[in-house]
Amino acid sequence: MISTNDFKTGQTILYEGNIYSVIEFLHVKPGKGGAFVRTKLRNLRSGSITDVTFNAGTKVERAQIDKTMMQYLYADGDKCVFMNTESYEQIEIPKYQIERELNYLYEGLSVEVMFYNASEILGVLLPDKMTLEIVETMPAVKGDTKGNALKDAILQTGLMVKVPMFIEQGEKIIVNTNDASYVSRDK
After folding, report:
1. 0.90 exceeded by the pTM?
2. b/e map of 173-184 (b: 16 or more CB within 10 Å)?
């Protein structure tokens, strides 16, 4: 059991029969009444985000999540196949369970796969920033740089992002996986 006073970002808890990850938390001590903890939680099974308020000091059960490094192999119909690089064991994850992460997966990519109780697959953990190659973008037009001009670029995974005008096809860029935004050129 863990007290709501000890919450940390990224911590996993069991609450009302679901497994949640703490995204944000705020301790509030009003002038009148008892203190409470306002949280934003991500359901690790469905991906939905919920706002929950706990009384300060409330005990909740900690969820034991195991992370295993696996390599993305290929998509097969409505499933994605991953392989444990140590044991060569392969698992299949339904595409609906990793919808957001599919925009960043390419063959051979190593990612962490989350398991609950060593059997239930919860999803895939991506790094905050990834390097991806641009496969299609319009060439820059001289003089078309008024302000912070951006153009569309399609990455090797099929994801479309907005990039500055000077970025060319074939270049590798760093993309923020939280909001699909351009960060910088890859050096």
Report:
1. no
2. bebebeeeebee
